[in-house]
Amino acid sequence: MLFGSLCDRAKTIHTPGGTGALRVAAELLRQFGSKTIWVSKPTWANHTNIFQAAGLTVKEYPYYNATSKDLDADGFFAALETVPAGDCVLLHACCHNPSGVDLSAEQWKQVAQIAQKNGWSTLIDFAYQGLGDGLEADRIGVETLLASGIELLIASSFSKNFGLYRDRTGALTAVAATPADAETAMSHMKATARVIYSNPPAHGGMIVTTILKDAELSKLWKNELDEMRERIAQARSALAEGLTTHGVPMDCSFMTKQKGMFSFSGLTKDQVNFLREEKAIYIVGSGRINVAGLTHGNLGYACDAVAEAMKK
Ligand SMILES: Cc1ncc(COP(=O)(O)O)c(C=O)c1O
């Protein structure tokens, strides 16, 4: 898997998707002492459900500033300073879902320092590797935390970057303090998985392994992933430009800075309802647009409709 050779204090198990990895991580946290997990406000809606189902208490740290349409850096770092030792903090490695707002390299360093100083544990959700700035560039957060020497759990999903949604393909990596601790973590991960789902479906994992072990196939896959990322970036620019051309009274350039498949558009619930009822355009209630759903064929119609909704 992508993390198999991260370092000698890392061990990885194959899980049913990123969701399976998050659930095993949550069970491990509960068994080994973290009763509370902190998630960004907002976060992927399923995070809270997964963690609560495993018996964890979920608390939120500020993340997105709806006015600046960027990171609420002051609120974020102030909240991280208050997280007690033993609690866990969930961070999105890249392509934050739903906001599209990612941490900079400098901000990751700050996170690593606080985690190290305050002694809380860290779970990284890595569901969109390759869809932000690229396969290597998207590892910046993980690399920074690794370099600081702290222990980590990393939940990877191959649903998006390998197009394996229905094959439930993911991985959970435990990075422990020592190689011996990593062995112990591995046996706990296996035992935990055994009571939840026993074994993950084999097919998706075999596809990923076959591709990653073959230089030609890997090259092909990386090229296709690059194309996909670039297409999404183009759709972002086209959407921002299209909305401006259609007279939307707002600076839409923030959409081009966001990463990944989603854009927090700032559309209100009423505007989202209008688009669904009147225009057959489906946007999540929070105003999250799936930018990857925009094509040359539907972009003009979408811009027209969103502009009409925004002027209401
Ligand atoms: C942030 C985030 N984490 C995890 C997942 C789950 O990934 P999977 O579909 O592989 O279970 C998703 C899927 O949408 C996601 O957006």
- Count of extended strands: 11
- How many domains would you count in the coordinates? 2
Strand order of the largest sheet: 1-9-8-7-6-2-3
Question: Structural class from helices and strands?
Answer: alpha/beta
The pLDDT mean sits at 93
Strand count, sense and barrel status of the largest sheet are: 7 strands, mixed
As residue ranges, the low-confidence spans are none
Number of helices: 11
Dominant shape: globular
In terms of DSSP E residues, the strand content is 15-25%
CATH superfamily of the largest domain: Type I PLP-dependent aspartate aminotransferase-like (Major domain)
The span between the termini is 48 Å
Helical fraction: 40-55%
CATH C-level of the largest domain:
Alpha Beta
Written as H for each helix and E for each strand, in order along the chain, the element string is EHEHEEEHEHEHEEHHHHEHEH
The distinct bound ligands, ions and cofactors come out as:
pyridoxal-5'-phosphate
CATH topology of the largest domain: Aspartate Aminotransferase, domain 2
Rg, alpha carbons = 20 Å
CATH architecture of the largest domain: 3-Layer(aba) Sandwich
Give a summary of the structure in a few sentences.
The protein is 47% helix and 16% strand. It is an alpha/beta fold.
